[in-house]
Amino acid sequence: MKKLLIGALLAFFSVSSMAVDGYKNIKFGDTVKQVLSSKLCNFEKMPNTSGLKQMSQYGCADFKFSGKSSLVVATFIDDKFRKLIINVDPDINPLLNSLMEKYGAPNAMSSQDELNKAQVNSDEYSLFVDFDKGTVSLKVEKSKNKPVMALLIYSDINFDKELSEIKNKNLADDI
User: Fold this and answer.
1) In whole angstroms, what is the distance from residue 81 CA to residue 63 CA?
2) Is the pTM of this model over 0.70?
3) Does the keyword Signal feature in the UniProt annotation (predicted)?
4) What distance in Å separates the CA atoms of residue 72 and residue 62, rounded to the nearest whole number?
5) Are 30 and 80 in contact (CB under 8 A)?
6) Measured between alpha carbons, how far is 132 from 101 in angstroms, rounded to an integer?
7) Alpha-helical segments (H) within 1-144
8) Is 29 left (phi over 0), alpha (psi -120 to 50) or beta?
9) DSSP string, 27-60
10) C-alpha distance from residue 82 to each of 50, 72, 99, 123 (Å)
11) What is the Cα–Cα distance from 85 to 70, expressed in whole angstroms?
12) Residue 57's pLDDT band (boundaries 50, 70, 90)?
């Protein structure tokens, strides 16, 4: 009985320490072709506004999330899937509760000061909650004269590092 309990605890901690590896049937590292063939939605290539030749993005407006059509952007670096951004309902409480049920307590979130400022100045704010080592994030932003925007973001654990390395290399080539 002790061995079974110890095994279950080890399995729990080893699984809970693993970062998210993708979204549904697409995995970080999949090629553009693999992601497009997943039929997650009808992706179309987007113009490259990043200025980085290594980066490409595909978007769609027919992605189903919580029973509604949502805008989605998939980001690729060197033809490898690295990030998925889903535009979600600004009423984030049900989603936030579901994320906490699935991933546990947040790893990081906006400070209490930022939350207080958002309540006082409801015209402009940016708030976030990160789960699973930052691989799952919920961001809520409000800009003057624009509606509230809520984004659910799944990203490869090395996305920021990889992007920073590309930018540094590009700069090193120029200086």
Assistant:
1) 17
2) yes
3) yes
4) 8
5) yes
6) 12
7) 2-16, 32-37, 93-103, 112-120
8) left
9) ETT-BHHHHHHTTSS--EEPP--S--TTEEEEEE
10) 15, 14, 20, 32
11) 10
12) very high
Average pLDDT over every residue of 165-175: 85
Position with higher pLDDT, 96 vs 16? 96
* Residue 122, pLDDT score: 77
Place of tokens 């490869």: 156
Q: What is the pLDDT of residue 139?
A: 96
Domains of the chain: which residue ranges? 2-174
The answer to whether the CB of 109 falls within 8 A of the CB of 130 is yes
Under DSSP, the state recorded for 133 is: G
Using alpha carbons, select from 28, 53, 25, 21 the residue that is nearest to residue 41.
25
Tell me if residue 86 falls in helix, strand or coil. strand
- The pLDDT score that the predictor gives to residue 18 is 58
Give the count of beta carbons closer than 10 Å to the beta carbon of residue 4.
8
Please give the pLDDT value at position 119.
78
